[in-house]
Write a structure and sequence with these properties.
By secondary structure, this protein is mostly helical. The chain contains 19 helices and no strands. It is globular.
Length: 404
């Protein structure tokens, strides 16, 4: 793979990561006005996305397997075109069942990105932790971009525009991607540009078991926090409207997302296990404090808690890549996202149930603090590393062409 193709792969992978994370938070902002539009309660509106969230995670292994066995480039094309057309369909549907169906389509096509796009990007990268960090920023700021976009478009043109306008951008990106593929500027890659040592079978099995636990719990934190913050901010910021809540969510996710560049750099330079463990430990007291916070201090705590959750992602992905053969990496990332986005996607109905039962968010955030402690305790059981996740085969990168 040439340096030019690697840079193009990173660019399209980053855009794909951004797009894969925008439509769900757009829905959570729209959910603040949809009760009046659809004649449902807030909790009933939230339930409309449950099938889409489950598909987003549960179909990831199949998408990863197709990427490994058929074509990562082909699957990325299906992702861009399918996701864009699904979002455009939201401009036409009527009634809650139709809205839920389109959200399911968005989840179906959205399920392609993480197992395919991240595995593809890692194969193309020399400094894997750095590339994961850069890529992670785009996923991390996705909810912030989505919240700002959704709040603005809903105020100007209604909730449908919040889906249609981003859908047009995704579709145009897909068409540009096809041009790059046709001209040979983006090519298929089945082997790592910078190979890394194979782990022992024992270490690979041990890491697989531990990461299954940590990815499930970390995913639960992410999936529960995302739908909770818009409503939490609307209720506790004091007179906040939909636009104010959307702006606060935007600030939290935009700033928190930027931490992944530094976190990816740290995961290249120091043991990824330690970076992962410390990021989990930092979240626990912040989530617990968020349970009773209000005002500006609540927004600051939310920013730090989300930053801790996102800072763990580059190390987590680097660890998963390290303990998985390159030819099966898409499938492995697919299994990861069954846990992170599929099973843990049940956090959305959990948020609704806890809120109805307790009348607030206090119990929810205490439980999420406990989940962060479980992640830290499990991460301590990962195999030891000699250095930063060994994401680069040494000092082999010196003299290689520039590019991620």
């Amino acid at each position: 793979m040439t340096a030019r193709s690697a840079r193009a792969s990173l660019a399209f992978s980053c855009l794909g990561h951004l797009y894969s994370h925008v439509f769900e938070p757009i829905f959570y902002i729209a959910a603040l006005v949809l009760p009046g539009e659809l004649g449902l309660s807030y909790e009933e509106v939230l339930a409309l996305i449950v099938v889409g969230k489950l598909l987003y995670g549960l179909l990831a292994p199949a998408a990863g397997w197709l990427g490994d066995r058929w074509s990562t480039v082909g699957m990325m094309a299906v992702f861009f075109l399918g996701l864009g057309l699904s979002a455009l369909a939201m401009g036409l549907v009527q009634g809650p069942w139709a809205v839920g169906f389109v959200l399911a389509l968005i989840g179906l096509f959205g399920s392609i990105y993480h197992p395919v796009g991240i595995a593809w990007m890692i194969r193309s990268a020399v400094d894997k932790g750095k590339a994961i960090g850069i890529n992670g920023v785009f996923g991390g700021i996705g909810p912030g971009v989505a919240s700002l976009t959704a709040g603005t478009l809903i105020a100007a043109s209604g909730w449908r525009a919040a889906f249609v306008v981003p859908g047009v951008l995704v579709l145009l990106t897909g068409l540009a991607f096809l041009v790059f593929v046709a001209k040979g500027w983006v090519i298929e890659a089945k082997a790592d540009r910078a190979p890394q040592p194979e782990p022992s079978k024992g270490d690979a099995m041990r890491a697989g078991i531990v990461l299954s636990v940590t990815m499930l719990c970390a995913g639960l934190i992410y999936q529960a926090t995302q739908p909770s913050l818009p409503k939490l901010f609307e209720e506790r910021l004091g007179g906040a409207n939909v636009g104010d809540a959307a702006l606060a969510v935007t600030v939290v996710y935009l700033l928190a997302g930027l931490t992944q560049i530094a976190a990816g750099h740290l995961a290249d330079r120091f043991p990824a296990k330690k970076v992962y463990l410390l990021a989990a430990l930092a979240q626990a007291p912040l989530l617990a404090a968020l349970a009773w916070a209000s005002g500006i201090s609540m927004v600051a705590l939310a920013l730090l808690a989300v930053a801790g959750n996102m800072a763990a992602i580059p190390a987590e992905n680097l660890l998963l890549a390290k303990y998985t053969p390159a030819k099966w990496r898409g499938t492995a990332f697919g299994l990861k996202f069954v846990l992170s986005f599929g099973v843990s996607g049940l956090a959305v109905p959990l948020v609704s149930l806890i809120r109805v039962a307790s009348g607030g968010f206090e119990v929810l955030f205490v439980l999420l603090a406990g989940a962060a402690l479980v992640v830290a305790a499990a991460a301590a059981l990962l195999p030891s590393e000699r250095k930063g996740g060994e994401g680069v085969v040494g000092e082999q990168k010196a003299g290689q062409e520039a590019g991620a």
